[in-house]
């Protein structure tokens, strides 16, 4: 009898409200609580706009760099401080020399990207949609992808000479493969359940390609485009330092002869800013084309 009484009283003493003891684990309202918690706006550690917070890291790096140059920790012959770099940039801009070199580089990269991205996209679609295209093209693209792009420079010069064509050809060759690999993988990675749902809805092969497969491959294409944009500038740095008469790479090569580290660093900063601008362009395309997709955006 005492044991039975103890068992009857124990739940009330645990709950404190005279009712039955709550079972372990999440209760009936836990799903609602979790949903409310997930929908609450995230708090940021620094109450500043997101663009300002993204610039905080580079600005801090520039400040440390300037202090190292000001106090003589790093000599100007080794690495010019930001003040000297900005001064050289202003002088080259004032004379119009920097603008001419920048336009030459932009023209080459744009031409090479147009050819490389178009070729990579078309080959990826053919190899991804058709079994025969996969058997004929994918293995060939994988072999060519393993070739070092800059190692082809002597051969490209023999083929096309030392004008604009070899530089554009190198950029096209180097940017086609990131687009191909990521787009091809995205096409083959489309969820089979979506394809079956499209067939159930009455879509034919062309309708599946247009409304299911290609839209599902857009994220992969944009990833490949991001890699292609970065790779284009890396290739152009080397291509413009060999057999070139203008361009940012040519300007840096000329500055090396005079130990002008300020101009060399200026060229590197221009390449970095161009890469940042290209990445921002791809992010804008992602927001426009993938507005239906909501992914994880990081915690507070």
UniProtKB/TrEMBL annotation:
Q: Which PROSITE patterns match?
A: ABC_TM1
Per UniProt, what is one Pfam family of this protein? BPD_transp_1
Q: Where in the cell is it found?
A: Cell membrane
Membrane topology of this protein: Multi-pass membrane protein
The residue ranges crossing the membrane are 109-130, 142-162, 168-187, 208-238, 258-282
Q: A Gene Ontology CC term for this entry? A: plasma membrane
Q: Which UniProt keywords apply?
A: Cell membrane, Membrane, Transmembrane, Transmembrane helix, Transport
Region: Disordered; residue ranges are: 8-28
The processes (GO biological process) annotated in the record are:
alkanesulfonate transmembrane transport
**Residue span(s) of domain ABC transmembrane type-1:** 102-282
Q: Which family does it belong to?
A: Belongs to the binding-protein-dependent transport system permease family.
Under the heading PANTHER family, the entry gives: ALIPHATIC SULFONATES TRANSPORT PERMEASE PROTEIN SSUC-RELATED, ALKANE SULFONATE ABC TRANSPORTER-RELATED, MEMBRANE SUBUNIT
The entry's protein name is ABC transporter permease subunit
Species source reads Streptomyces beijiangensis
């Amino acid at each position: 009898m005492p044991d039975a009484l103890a068992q009857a009283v124990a739940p009330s003493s645990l709950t404190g409200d005279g009712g039955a003891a709550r079972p372990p684990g999440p209760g009936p309202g836990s799903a609602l609580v979790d949903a409310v918690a997930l929908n609450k706006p995230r708090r940021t550690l620094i109450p500043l706009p997101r663009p300002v917070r993204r610039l905080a890291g580079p600005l801090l790096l520039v400040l440390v760099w300037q202090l190292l140059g000001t106090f003589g920790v790093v000599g100007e012959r080794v690495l010019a401080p930001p003040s000297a770099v900005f001064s050289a940039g202003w002088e080259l801009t004032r004379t119009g020399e920097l603008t001419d070199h920048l336009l030459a580089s932009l023209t080459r990269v744009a031409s090479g990207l147009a050819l490389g991205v178009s070729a990579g996209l078309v080959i990826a679609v053919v190899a991804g949609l058709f079994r025969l295209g996969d058997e004929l093209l994918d293995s060939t693209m994988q072999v060519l992808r393993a070739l070092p792009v800059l190692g082809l420079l002597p051969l490209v010069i023999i083929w096309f000479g030392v004008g604009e064509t070899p530089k554009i050809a190198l950029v096209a060759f180097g940017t086609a493969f990131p687009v191909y690999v990521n787009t091809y993988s995205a096409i083959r990675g489309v969820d089979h359940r979506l394809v079956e749902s499209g067939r159930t809805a009455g879509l034919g092969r062309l309708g599946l390609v247009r409304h299911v497969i290609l839209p599902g491959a857009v994220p992969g294409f944009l990833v490949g485009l991001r890699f292609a944009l970065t790779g284009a500038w890396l290739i152009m740095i080397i291509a413009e330092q060999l057999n070139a008469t203008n361009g940012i790479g040519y300007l840096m090569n000329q500055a090396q002869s005079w130990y002008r580290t300020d101009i060399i660093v200026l060229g590197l900063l221009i390449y970095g800013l161009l890469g940042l601008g290209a990445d921002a362009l791809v992010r804008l395309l992602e927001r426009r084309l993938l507005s239906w997709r909501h992914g994880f955006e990081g915690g507070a």
